[in-house]
Amino acid sequence: QKEVEQDPGPLSVPEGAIVSLNCTYSNSAFQYFMWYRQYSRKGPELLMYTYSSGNKEDGRFTAQVDKSSKYISLFIRDSQPSDSATYLCAMSADRDDKIIFGKGTRLHILP
Amino acid sequence: EPEVTQTPSHQVTQMGQEVILRCVPISNHLYFYWYRQILGQKVEFLVSFYNNEISEKSEIFDDQFSVERPDGSNFTLKIRSTKLEDSAMYFCATGQQETQYFGPGTRLLVL
Known about the structure:
The complex is a heterodimer of chains A (about 110) and B (about 110). By secondary structure, chain A is mostly beta strands.
């Protein structure tokens, strides 16, 4: 079983829709969970960061972590064409530890 | 907003040549990392660096690779004798406690 699994997509949704992205993981030692956004041939940009289980909201973005199910999600409300990018889930066991990434989901928001 | 910067943005080299990739971290960050992303694949951890020494390295980070912080500001990754399979995007990341911020990357092409 891969350490972090993420559906690569592509996922196409109309502008204004709610987008749901998710990842599963196998390592129960992971405590820190992140979502990064990556545009083509650019570096990952940190979007959301969560420690342990729970929800975190930032504007149109909501991150959820369910450690009992080893499942994390990112919701994007009122999606915009500028949200079109690859979204990487990422996690680590300790605060300064290496980050383990999912493969990324390519998202297209259709105008 | 402070950013991680990397130079060069692109590097083309012949197999067997040495390359040095440079990173300028965000000024108050204490933790430094290198990751790489082969085209179409996930971002992979190479090495972490703290307090002027390597904290952790992956299996990819063999004797051909080295890192240093020569002048207290720049953070460099050296590949001593490049191989074709070293062609990838190399990202520097820097962090303060829980989060890591990525630079724009250096695209390395080994011919």
